[in-house]
């Protein structure tokens, strides 16, 4: 006979996890403490441990975990409605199942924030670099976009053939790790140990789920959608590795990815990251002043324009992921990616370069 009575230990477990949830909600208001004690203290230990345990495996443990979870939930839902339709489901049993779901969600919530999620509330890269985000004028944005367009075109011209774009997994992930090893010489807090970057098992399905890559906080793996256009992949890998370092918000992961990729000696990595930044800057310039945007766009190398068209033709659905970002201290959702421009402006003001 199946259990339908909630035992005392399970009630205690639920209460304990609810207490942890309350504590998490209290802690997120203290960004300086999170930066000091969690993001620069406890989190690196957690992340490195996960990467040591799972990084050596050639497949994505996180993807498999998500697949199993989805299948179990789907099976449970189908079973629930079948029993309800046949009127074989008692109120007592329904209450027990509801309790199990609540306990499971509470555990997931606590583990998520303990393993990574608190990084959404850290002081972040601007604090570490001692740069300040400030409002900027359209002329300043125009100047930045022109500079990015020039560098993007320059790096594109250095690539002799499209075949150079295509990097196999090991080469792509290895070059990204080398880029982080290089940037660490300038910014020691970007030290990256124990690579754990995997090709996502979801493949083309990832295009419809709305991601080019994602970080799995439960396994510590950076998952890369290898069905993404080749020219985008280096920027994506550096972005996801930034998430692994604890830069949770999309704008910070973009910026840290830029810092790493711009220290690479590989021309495809350099082109990929500057093309990525150009797209964000150009999109904002178009919204502010479309005539200025057209002037900059006309200056692009012909092959850059072709690459941009190929990227536009690559379709992803961002609705679900946008809602996830809004739930985690990023109210602009998917638009948060373009906030990297304010960080780039602040960095340029301080160092006079990008």
From TrEMBL:
What's the name of the protein? Answer: DUF3810 domain-containing protein
Range of residues in the leader sequence: none
Q: Which organism is it from?
A: Pseudopedobacter saltans
Q: Spell out the Pfam families in the cross-references.
A: DUF3810 (PF12725)
Q: Where are the transmembrane segments?
A: 12-32, 52-78, 98-118
Q: Which UniProt keywords apply?
A: Membrane, Transmembrane, Transmembrane helix
């Amino acid at each position: 006979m199946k259990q339908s009575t909630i035992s005392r230990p399970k009630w205690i477990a639920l209460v304990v996890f609810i207490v942890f949830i309350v504590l998490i909600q209290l802690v997120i208001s203290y960004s300086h403490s999170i930066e000091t004690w969690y993001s620069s203290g406890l989190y690196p230990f957690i992340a490195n441990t996960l990467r040591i345990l799972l990084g050596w495996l050639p497949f994505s443990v996180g993807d498999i975990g998500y697949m199993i979870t989805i299948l179990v939930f789907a099976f449970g839902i189908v079973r629930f409605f079948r029993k309800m339709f046949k009127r074989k489901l008692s109120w007592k049993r329904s209450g027990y199942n509801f309790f199990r779901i609540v306990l499971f969600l509470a555990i997931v919530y606590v583990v998520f924030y303990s393993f990574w999620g608190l990084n959404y509330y850290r002081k972040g890269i601007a604090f570490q670099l001692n740069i300040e985000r400030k409002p900027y004028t359209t002329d300043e944005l125009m100047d930045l976009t022109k500079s990015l367009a020039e560098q993007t075109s320059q790096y594109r011209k250095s690539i002799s053939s499209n075949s150079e774009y295509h990097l196999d997994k090991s080469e792509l992930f290895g070059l990204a790790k080398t880029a982080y090893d290089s940037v660490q010489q300038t910014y020691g807090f970007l030290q990256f140990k124990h690579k754990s970057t995997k090709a996502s098992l979801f493949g083309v399905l990832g295009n419809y789920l709305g991601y080019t890559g994602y970080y799995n906080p439960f396994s510590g793996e950076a998952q890369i959608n290898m069905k993404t256009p080749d020219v985008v992949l280096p920027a994506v890998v550096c972005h996801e590795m930034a998430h692994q370092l604890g830069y949770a918000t999309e704008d910070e992961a973009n910026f840290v990815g830029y810092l790493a990729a711009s220290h690479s000696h590989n021309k495809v990595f350099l082109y990929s990251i500057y093309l990525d930044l150009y797209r964000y800057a150009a999109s904002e310039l178009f919204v502010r002043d479309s005539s200025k945007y057209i002037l900059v766009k006309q200056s692009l190398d012909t092959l850059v324009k072709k690459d941009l068209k190929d990227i536009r033709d690559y379709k992803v659905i961002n609705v679900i992921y946008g809602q996830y970002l809004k739930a985690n201290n990023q109210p602009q959702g998917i638009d948060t990616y373009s906030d990297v421009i304010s960080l780039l402006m602040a960095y340029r003001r301080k160092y006079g370069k990008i």
